[in-house]
């Protein structure tokens, strides 16, 4: 009986881990669409309200995004989730994400550590811990 309980608990933890990873990957797919394709309608799905407010408000943040170079389809950089860790306190994650520079002139990969927080039932980006760029 104990063995069955341990097995069920292990399966539950594994499926939760896979679910969290899928959610984080989907978040960074949206992040990439906002940052490189200027899909600003996704801002509220990607960033926390606090982050948007601290970036000057939604309108100013949209203007900052539109000033970024728009990626061409052929050279679009993809962000690869290297690893992530859930905080022991609250529902916060740290995700290490690397830019895939395979099709870029810049051959050195760069990575960033993002802080993810659950807001309105969804994981959203609340900032970065460090940035290699």
Keywords:
about 130 residues, Nuclear Transport Factor 2, Chain: A, four-stranded antiparallel beta sheet, globular
Give a description of the structure:
By secondary structure, the protein is of the alpha+beta class. The protein has one domain: Nuclear Transport Factor 2, Chain: A (Roll). The protein contains four helices and four strands. Strands 1-2-3-4 form a four-stranded antiparallel beta sheet. It is globular and about 35 Å long. About 8% of the residues have low confidence.
Number of domains: 1
- Give the helix level as a range of percent: 40-55%
Distance from N terminus to C terminus (CA atoms, Å) equals: 53 Å
Q: What is the alpha-carbon Rg in Å?
A: 17 Å
Task: Please specify the SSE layout and strand pairing.
Elements: H1 2-37, H2 43-46, H3 49-54, H4 58-67, E1 78-86, E2 92-100, E3 111-119, E4 122-131
Summarize the structure.
It contains four helices and four strands. It has 133 residues and is of the alpha+beta class.
């Amino acid at each position: 009986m104990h063995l069955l309980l341990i097995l069920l608990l292990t399966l539950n933890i594994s499926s939760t881990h896979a679910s969290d990873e899928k959610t984080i990957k989907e978040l960074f797919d949206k992040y990439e669409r906002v940052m490189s394709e200027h899909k600003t309608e996704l801002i509220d799905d990607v960033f926390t309200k606090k982050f948007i407010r601290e970036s000057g408000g939604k309108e100013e943040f949209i203007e900052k995004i539109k000033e970024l170079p728009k990626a061409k389809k052929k050279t679009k950089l993809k962000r690869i989730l290297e690893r992530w860790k859930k905080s022991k306190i609250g529902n916060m994650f740290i995700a290490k994400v690397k830019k895939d520079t395979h099709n870029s002139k810049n051959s050195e990969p760069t990575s960033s550590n993002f802080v993810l927080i659950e807001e309105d039932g969804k994981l959203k980006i609340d900032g970065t811990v460090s940035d290699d760029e």
